[in-house]
Design goal:
5 strands, Rossmann fold, single chain, Helicase, Ruva Protein, domain 3
């Protein structure tokens, strides 16, 4: 991801992953959470490349066996040789014994998974010696009443400990200019950065989309400098397309 912008939050996420990988066995569990649009998915894709991680993206309704199959295929993309057929127990055994000691597993959109599936992934980390970082909206903000889930939740909290990062929107116009606008447009005026901040509210996903719209508009109009008018026009065009 040569075009990925390494924000402060992205660097914090990388540091958290490195701490998780270096943690003692049976405590190699980390968490990356945040509201939609704060850059979680793009960060996990970057971390996959930076740390040679095994990355899986979950979806709503994903079953245990499907999750294991996706994990086996992701491992194979990293040079492993894991047969992705058979029962869930067979797949678990192959993955755990497949040489994942010291590797990093990232599960994005983990909020879609059932707690039993998360417990299964934790077992892979514990027994196989891999570090596991789960990413998604805040899994711990939900309230559960089932006794087994409460026990797992407490174990989960203890094992994550301080190894967690909450992705936040870009906080001010200066940071937005430094991380989003500068690499793409060069030096920008304060008024342009302020206009960009007003339109995006610091939301990472919308910031990237608005920057793309500004780029297209400037190319179409033969403009070479980003200014407040370009930002306002591009934002209005995006609103009209919604």
């Amino acid at each position: 991801m040569s075009n990925f912008v390494k924000t402060v939050m992205a660097e914090k996420a990388r540091a958290m992953c490195e701490v998780t990988m270096a943690a003692p066995r049976y405590s190699r569990l980390g968490q990356l959470t945040g509201d939609p649009g704060t850059g979680k998915t793009s960060t996990t894709l970057w971390l996959e490349q930076e740390l040679d991680a095994i990355r899986v993206e979950a979806w709503s309704g994903m079953k245990d066996k499907t999750c294991l199959q996706e994990l086996a295929r992701a491992m194979n993309n990293k040079g492993f040789s894991i047969d992705d057929t058979g029962t869930s127990n067979t797949l678990m055994h192959r993955i755990i014994r497949g040489g994942i000691e010291g590797k990093l597993i990232i599960v994005d959109e983990a909020n879609h998974l059932k707690w039993a599936t998360l417990e299964m992934l934790r077992s892979i980390s514990d027994i196989g010696g891999a570090a596991l970082v789960i990413a998604g909206t805040d899994l711990l903000a939900k309230k559960f009443t089932h006794p087994q889930i409460r026990v797992f939740l407490e174990q989960y909290r203890q094992r994550v400990g301080t190894k967690k990062v909450v992705m936040q929107p870009v906080k001010d116009a200066g940071e937005l200019a430094a991380y989003v606008l500068g690499p793409r447009f060069g030096a920008v005026t304060k008024s342009s950065a302020d206009a960009f901040m007003r339109k995006t509210g610091g939301n990472w996903r919308f910031s990237v989309a608005l920057a793309d719209a500004c780029t297209r508009l400037m190319k179409n109009e033969g403009l070479t400098k980003l200014d407040e008018k370009v930002v306002e026009t591009a934002a209005a065009w995006m609103a009209g397309q919604a």
